[in-house]
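thread: overnight batch results

M.L. [08:02]
morning all. the overnight job finished for the chain we discussed friday. pasting input first so we're all looking at the same thing
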Amino acid sequence: MKIIVDADATPKNALEICRRAAKEFSVPLITVASFNHRIESDRHVVVGNAPQEADMQVVNLTAGGDVVVTQDWGLAAMALGKGAKALSPTGRIFREDNIDFLLEEREMKAKFRRSGGRTRGPRKRTPEDDLNFKVSLYSLLET
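M.L. [08:03]
and the structure it wrote out:
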């Protein structure tokens, strides 16, 4: 088991929680991000800036039983398909029974934006998000 973080869009607080959890559970922590991001990590993989390059590297590093941290629902679906566990930096655990709905929602929003509609971006991160993330991460590492 290892923790793999899609670090392109993971908040620093969530990265720090991952560092502490990796140390506490004695599992490797691997962060992946494009060269545009400054990530401090013992095992950091730098990728180019091409679309989906970090996501593909995360998928390539993922094996069954790993924990993948990502905001990208498509990447979460691929991780689940490889037998890994996946969660968002806000603590949402992605599961086989909810990922199809999320992907469908993502497609509907993208279609709406392509037709000129506007959707809201993510809300500001709160201390509750950090707590939810920590609780979810630790529960996945314990199972």
